[in-house]
């Protein structure tokens, strides 16, 4: 090969034929459920809803159908402008959040309507910002009480969510009266900071708390703070928490004993929820959520092919 020539290897990946996977072993839906997945083609090709057959749910389905039939794709501001404070929306635009993701476009109207919701979407799809926008639409910065609680399985995830929540909390109010009272976000994660946070919780409770279930249960059992004023409860990576034998009992107690689903809006978020129909049934039967809970499933992962053929082409230039 000449010195002025080179070889470039181009990888060509070809999907091998594979048999169609068998139907999954999800439990059959039990009455009084209505499976709206059969109507999902009217909304889009990559999302589906599952909810109860009440008038509110049918109105949501109709609204989604009408919105998706329209060629105009709403911006994040257009979706949130009647619900989220203007200073938070300006902060969103400052950091570059202009166009909603699929999960934000589908879930935010459901959340703003007051429904409990199960956000079922892949990692990186925008679930965190989705439920944070709901939280900022509900909390009152003038009120000194815990109004929103985000439960996470790990310290690392809690730190990521806290960073985004504080980024939004840095938004400045145009109203001089509210400028003196900003949104406060506290991270109750496993570590040596819990002692310092105890005095802060008693003196001036934050509006938003991000906590691991272990740290949260410890403080609730000691009555360091209460959830009487809780407006929004979010459980992120809910499938992981329910699989953990050490955490599931504390989570169940949080969902039913320390606060009532009738007094709050509950959001479960996860990238993978196996047997989601059974999970929705349990949410309602165990009173983890209200009966109008809506399952928003977007960007469903397609099955992987059985095998891949790799072929290489050597190109001389």
UniProtKB/TrEMBL annotation:
EC number(s) given by UniProt: 3.6.4.13
Reactions the enzyme catalyzes: ATP + H2O = ADP + phosphate + H(+)
Stored SMART domains: DEXDc
Domain Helicase ATP-binding, chain residue ranges per copy: 108-291
Entries under Pfam families matching the protein: DEAD
GO terms, molecular function: ATP binding; hydrolase activity; RNA binding; RNA helicase activity
Alphabetic keyword roster: ATP-binding, Helicase, Hydrolase, Nucleotide-binding
Enzyme class: hydrolase
Top-level taxon of origin: Eukaryota
Family matches, as PANTHER family: ATP-DEPENDENT RNA HELICASE DDX6_DHH1, DEAD-BOX ATP-DEPENDENT RNA HELICASE 47, MITOCHONDRIAL
Protein name: RNA helicase
Species for this entry: Gossypium raimondii
């Amino acid at each position: 090969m000449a010195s002025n020539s080179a070889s470039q290897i181009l990888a060509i990946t070809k999907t091998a034929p594979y048999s169609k996977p068998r139907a999954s072993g999800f439990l059959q839906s039990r009455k009084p459920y209505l499976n709206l997945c059969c109507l999902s083609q009217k909304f889009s090709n990559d999302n589906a809803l599952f909810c109860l057959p009440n008038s509110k749910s049918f109105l949501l389905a109709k609204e989604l159908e009408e919105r998706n039939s329209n060629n105009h794709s709403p911006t994040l501001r257009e979706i949130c402008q009647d619900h989220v404070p203007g200073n938070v929306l300006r902060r969103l635009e400052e950091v570059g959040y202009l166009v909603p993701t699929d999960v934000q476009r589908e879930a935010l109207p459901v959340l703003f309507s007051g429904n409990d919701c199960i956000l079922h979407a892949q990692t990186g799809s925008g679930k965190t910002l989705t439920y944070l926008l709901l939280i900022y639409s509900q909390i009152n910065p003038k009120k000194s009480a815990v109004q929103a609680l985000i439960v996470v399985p790990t310290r690392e995830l809690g730190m990521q969510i806290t960073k985004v929540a504080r980024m939004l909390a840095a938004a400045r109010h145009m109203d001089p009266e509210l400028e003196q009272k900003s949104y406060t976000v506290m991270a109750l994660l496993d570590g040596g900071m819990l002692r310092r946070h105890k005095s802060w919780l008693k003196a001036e409770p934050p509006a938003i708390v991000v906590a691991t279930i272990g740290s949260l249960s410890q403080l609730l059992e000691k009555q360091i703070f209460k959830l009487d004023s809780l407006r929004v409860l979010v459980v992120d990576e809910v499938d992981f928490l329910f699989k953990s034998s050490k955490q599931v009992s504390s989570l169940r107690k949080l969902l039913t004993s320390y606060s009532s689903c009738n007094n709050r809006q509950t959001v479960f978020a996860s990238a993978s929820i196996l047997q989601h129909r059974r999970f929705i049934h349990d949410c309602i039967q165990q009173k983890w959520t209200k009966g109008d809970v809506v399952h928003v499933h977007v960007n469903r992962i397609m099955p992987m092919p059985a095998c891949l053929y790799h072929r290489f082409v050597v190109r001389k230039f």
